[in-house]
Amino acid sequence: MKNYIKGAFTASIIASAVALTSCGEKGDTSEGASKTIYWTAIPDKSGTDQAERYKPLTDYLSTKLGVEFKYRNSNDYSASVASFSQGETHLAWFGGVTGVQARDKVEGSLAIAQGKIDPKYKSFFIAHKDTGLQPSETFPMGIKDLTFTFGSTSSTSGRVMPTHFIKQETGKLPEDFFSKPFKFTGKRSHGGVAADVASGAVQAGVMSYSTYNKMLKKGEIDQDTVIKIWETPDYYDYNFTIHPAIEKIHGEGFMKKVQQALLECEDPAVLDCINRKKLISAKNDDFNNIAEIMKSIDFDAK
């Protein structure tokens, strides 16, 4: 009997310890919680080592703020939102749509910084040379009967804003405009769109203009094969969003300190890892238009 009681007591202690450990891994803000700040980003290409890619920014923030930052990988757009909303990460490099989704789920979260280019972001519609389509200042109605791919289903520049502009230019949502079923590249995101058009897997697609230009510069896109046929009007897109729980761990005013550190960054290597040359201030209201567009196209923001 004594052995039974002793065994039950020991099992209870172990179970309690496991439960406490699990709490600590889910954004625990108690005094004994880890001081390490985990951050994440939406993926714009597949098959890349995200932690290595973002190491310059991780190291910069750790040194600048005197607090350990660590990057936590997100396999897709929805994973980045889930990680942030569950308190597993306290800082995120979001797109316009994922930023809206995350801030809707976390009261008190704030958009604090964006690239200088982000208030005037745009999407590029692209097509394989064999389609015969050429660059135009007007919406390319010729894509109607082509095989077509968007990027990730939650991408601002690869899905939501292009859907908005298709509706604006044709009066129809993509499912009614295209004569053939369209596709999504999912985790392969913008890089997947370029690759699929280049290979002929699809005849046309739409992607982030910033990713297109970077891939072009690195020789990853042959512009004689992949033709940029139309660029959309401007809209707000990427942003750094911060979780309010960070101040329960590092004290009042820490959100502002992180913002200031980002805005003061002038290291090209750090900025290049997010494909930017300068960061400027951002606020939640900057993305109100995207939130309204998400509603207008019946995009599920949950």
Task: Describe the model.
This protein is of the alpha/beta class and 302 residues long. The chain has 2 domains: 35-118 and 237-288, Periplasmic binding protein-like II (D-Maltodextrin-Binding Protein, domain 2), CATH 3.40.190; 122-231, Periplasmic binding protein-like II (D-Maltodextrin-Binding Protein, domain 2), CATH 3.40.190. Helices cover 42% and strands 16% of the residues. It has a 6-stranded mixed beta sheet, sandwiched between helices. A 5-stranded mixed beta sheet has the order 7-6-8-5-9. It starts with a helix and ends in a 6-residue tail after the last helix.
Set out the fold topology:
Elements: H1 2-25, E1 37-41, H2 50-53, H3 55-65, E2 69-71, H4 77-85, E3 91-94, H5 96-105, E4 110-115, E5 123-128, E6 148-150, H6 156-170, H7 174-177, E7 183-184, H8 189-199, E8 204-208, H9 209-217, E9 226-231, E10 239-242, H10 246-250, H11 254-264, H12 268-272, E11 279-281, H13 288-296
Parallel strand pairs: 1-2, 1-3, 6-7, 6-8
Antiparallel strand pairs: 3-10, 4-10, 4-11, 5-8, 5-9
Helix pairs in contact: 4-5, 6-13
